[in-house]
Design brief:
Helix content: 40-55%
Number of strands: 12
Strand content: 5-15%
Oligomer: single chain
Distance between the termini: 41 Å
Structural class: alpha/beta
Shape: globular
Number of helices: 15
Length: 389
């Protein structure tokens, strides 16, 4: 008999909320019209997109025409950074970001360096918090864009985005935040954050994969990066993913209608994990800020073991977890986030990320806390590093 799954990788992806799935289903069957056409079947799709845009704008506190639907967080990051860079290169060629961003940001900045742009990667402290004094020193008369994530996808540390917005106000610098990991957990009101651009991905807050949002403040100078049609007010060509957009908007609305109860639930489970693991396993290191972190994120490093081996042993017990971010967990390279935080390479290889969600229970957490010490002990017994310690 197959044992029940304990899913603790909600930072990688979430199951689609039943109400979001229900809202999507008609647009795969009877309401299949192309929203760019003019007949009534197509107008049903157009109305659905318009209603979805309204729902997203209400959560973000934005205007309707400031919302662009994309294929996900990576496209939103690409569109924001490339779009601003190419549109403003007559004013400058300098981009500032952090050393712990998602690769959708880091690789996009690296790509732009082929075209003569410069990138400054801000350092972070041991908790993964960006150095604001380094930001102040990095800004020069060629700086056109600052991109800092709202919350880190690996260790859960929340960044001082509002303070960054205050620092650069009046300097004609665009502020973008990758809020993909913060969606469904943190306040996304763009006025309170002070951002000009913000990226989201539906599958991080119980929506479908393959659909996202880029918020662009009215008046922000940027160039569209995908041509071939007039969709999204000529800002993102391609026939809209109507079902996905409806699912995104439904999931986002539900997430923020139930934000407090959701966060209270996942945080209690997160704290149960942190307390249970750090008290029962020697040399278990909590990574990320101890308090100013996402409510569902519990991330650790275990000395003298490999994260991949931990994951395989957990999987044999029906427990789903991650070592670092989902986009890089298949790599044997140490986490760039942990390296930036000053975690030694040999320690960073033993990383484990456990992220709680709506369906998790205290009994499931107790099960993880029960079996993980034995897994770590077994792996350490096979480690020459542990024997030499």
């Amino acid at each position: 008999m197959q044992q029940p799954i304990i899913y603790l990788d909600h930072a990688a992806t979430t199951p689609v909320h039943p109400k979001a799935l229900e809202a999507m289903l008609p647009f795969f069957s009877e309401s299949y019209g192309n929203p760019s056409s003019i007949y009534s079947l197509a107008r049903d799709s157009r109305r659905a997109i318009d209603a979805s845009r309204q729902a997203v704008a209400e959560v973000l506190g934005s205007q309707l025409n400031e919302i662009i639907f994309t294929s996900g967080g990576s496209e939103s990051d690409n569109l924001a950074i490339k779009g601003v860079a190419f549109a403003n290169r007559s004013r400058g060629n300098h981009i500032i970001t952090t050393s712990i961003e998602h690769h959708a940001v880091l690789h996009t900045c690296e790509y732009l360096e082929r075209f003569g742009f410069r990138t400054t990667h801000l350092p972070v402290d041991g908790y993964g918090v960006v150095d604001l004094q380094a930001l102040e020193r990095a800004i020069d008369d060629q700086t056109i864009l600052v991109s800092v994530m709202l919350a880190n996808n690996e260790v859960g540390t929340i960044q001082p985005v509002r303070a960054i917005a205050d620092m650069i106000r009046g300097r004609r610098i665009v502020l973008h935040t990758d809020a993909v990991q913060a969606g469904g957990s943190l306040d996304l009101d763009v006025s309170r954050l002070g951002v000009d651009m913000l990226s989201l991905s539906a599958h991080k807050f119980y929506g479908p994969k393959g659909v996202g949002v880029l918020y662009v403040r009215r008046g922000t100078n940027y160039w569209p990066q995908q041509q071939g049609g007039g969709q999204e007010r000529n800002r993102r060509a391609g026939t809209e993913n109507v079902a996905g957009i409806v699912g995104l908007a439904t999931a986002l609305r539900l997430a923020y209608e139930n934000l407090d109860s959701h966060n209270q639930h996942v945080q209690q489970l997160r704290d149960q994990l942190i307390k249970g693991i750090t008290s029962s396993i020697e040399r278990a290191i909590l990574t990320g800020h101890p308090e100013n972190r996402l409510p569902n994120n519990a991330s650790f490093c275990f000395e003298f073991v490999e994260g991949e081996s931990i994951l395989l042993n957990l999987d044999m017990l029906g427990i789903c977890a991650s070592s670092g971010s989902a986009c890089t967990s298949a790599s044997l390279e140490p986490s760039h986030v942990l390296r930036a935080m000053g975690v030694p390479v040999e320690v960073s290889h033993g990383s484990l990320r456990l992220t709680t969600g709506m369906s998790n229970t205290p009994e499931q957490i107790a099960r993880v806390v029960e079996v993980l010490p034995g897994i770590i002990q077994k792996l350490r017994a096979m480690s020459p590093l542990a024997a030499d310690s």
